[in-house]
Amino acid sequence: SLHERLDAANIPNIQAINGDMQSILVIRLSSMGDVILATPLVRQLRATYPSAIIDVAVAERFADVWKHNPRVSNVFAVPGSQPSGVPASYPVPLPSRPYDLVVDLQATARSRALIPQGSRSVMRLNKHRLEKLALVYLKRRPSTVTPIVQRYRNVIGALPIVVDSDGPEVWLPEDSSVGAFAREPRAFTGRIAVAPGAHHFTKRWPAERFAALCRELAGQGALPVLVGGQGDVELCSAVAAISGCSVEDRSGAVSVQDTARILDTCDALVTNDTGVMHLAAARRLPIVAIFGSTVPDLGFAPYGVPHTIVEHEIACRPCTHIGRSACPRGHFLCMQGITVETVLHAYTELIRRHGN
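Structure (tokenized):
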């Protein structure tokens, strides 16, 4: 259930605004983690404007995040990226009618091209580029870390909003059928989800370390369950083979819902800083998150669930805000410096504090 409070500091008569705000479009195209982190804002908009049309625009490959979300009126799946040199103003399956409010959480030329002409009010994300540059190139850590969920909410800070403290959500058809997203406390299963993949190399803890972790978990009586998409099949197969223990390889999922259902059978997740981490948070799973070339100061730590961050502090972190294809200094100490014992201890403490 939602833990709601009304923040009406700017506009006290919310009923008048409800009557005026008839249509809202929220744009967040990619990536999967960013799209999932936009779901609390849509939930809060729905609580604030219950009778409004609330549409979302999202990259086609991430549309499953919204597919069964009952808070959304229409999901517009935007085709893949344009070839280099092609203008951003290309045809997309969006309505031609204007919106009362457009919330642009992508804030790029591509997202601007999606905004219907005549929309009454457009609010865009402040991407804090200087802060990110200072963090990556000057190693200047922010005095206060603002989670991305909060930054998205700040975009509409001039409006009243019914705020809640819940995390992101990804609905399954079975959730929609009962009309509630209250995740029940799980019975202990002994199954531990392990996600060794990540799009960028420098965000991946080495495969042999994941394999050793699986051996340790199996030695404690747990069943490691490898999760990932179709691009993670080869890596997960290697982890399973190297581990030499009983491992359930469930990689190769073709949809967000497939992975969510697997996560729902597990007690916790051990993962790199990747989209599966945010999906697990959306399914209310405790998380051990391993950060390498990126840092939680960027605002992308798991949100709304018990979690532990594992990282190895070295002077060159972060070297990027999204990840790299290789360590720019060649040593990869940000990940090589994280031991299996450290991750296992983090998992054990997480379960001791928050598990069944």
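The CA atoms of residues 192 and 316 lie 32 Å apart. Residues 1-18, 83-91 have pLDDT under 50 and may be disordered.
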